[in-house]
Amino acid sequence: MFANFDFDVIRRSLSYLFLDGMTFTLTLTGLAALGGLMFGTLLALMRLSGLTLLGRIAGLYVDLMRSLPLVLVIFWFYFLVPYIGQWLTGSSRPIRVGAFASSLVTFILFEAAYFSEIMRAGIQSVSRGQPAAAQALGLTYSQTMRYVVLPQAFRNMLPVLLTQTIVLFQDTSLVYVLSIPDFLGAASKVAQRDGRLVEMYLFAAVVYFAISLVASLGIRRLQARIAFVH
Amino acid sequence: MNYHWNWHIFLEPAPNGTGSYLDMLLSGLVLTIETAICAWIIALTVGSIIGVLRTLPSKMASRAGFAYVEFFRNMPLLVQLFLWFFVLPEILPQSWGLWLKQLPNATFYTASIGLGLFMSARVAEQTRAGINSLPRGQKLAATALGLTTAQAYRYVLLPMAFRIVLPPLTSEFLSTIKNSSVAITIGLVELTAQARAMQEFSFQVFEAFTAATILYLLINIVVVIAMRFLERAVAVPGTIGGK
Question: How many structural domains is chain B composed of?
Answer without folding.
Answer: 1
